[in-house]
Design a protein that fits this description.
Layout (H helix, E strand, L loop, with lengths): L1 H33 L6 H10 L4 H12 L22 H14 L19 H18 L7
Length: 146
């Protein structure tokens, strides 16, 4: 019986820590959101257009990042990926992979991985993805209609 009681306490402690972490994370996001204006999807695309990033990239980022923030907060291109949206660098890598898939880009080879350590914000990621799409279209052979 004591073993079950100990397991129940551990489970309760785990649930409590998880709830506390989620509440504190949402509070941090709300505090940051009060210091800047969140953007609607259309405004987000327009802001990315200023950085010469296609609307489909901005739209895909907006949709993915919207799921990683507290309810009622709108994304902003200059929000940090690590520290605002995610607390684990591996999650940023997962987001990059997700964006590659959504945009039809070839995933990096595990033997020759992409260096994404310089990507700090959603805007940085958008510019990076724009470069990858531009390079992919340059690498696509043009069919000769002869």
């Amino acid at each position: 019986m004591n073993g079950w009681l100990f397991a129940a306490w551990l489970l309760l402690l785990f649930i409590g820590v998880t709830v506390w972490h989620n509440i504190s994370w949402a509070r941090m996001q709300r505090r940051v959101a009060l210091q800047r204006n969140g953007l609607t999807s259309t405004q987000y695309e327009e802001e990315f257009r200023k950085s010469l990033v296609r609307p489909e990239i901005a739209s895909a980022l907006y949709a993915s990042l919207s799921m990683s923030i507290a309810k009622g907060i709108l994304p902003h291109p200059d929000d940090g990926l690590l520290g605002f949206y995610f607390d684990d660098p591996e999650c940023v890598g997962d987001l990059v992979e997700e964006m590659f898939e959504k945009l039809g880009l070839e995933l990096p080879n595990p033997q020759n991985p992409e260096n994404i350590e310089w990507i700090d914000s959603a805007r940085d990621l958008g510019v990076y993805l724009e470069q990858k799409l531009a390079n992919a279209s340059l690498d696509t052979p043009v069919l000769n209609p002869e």
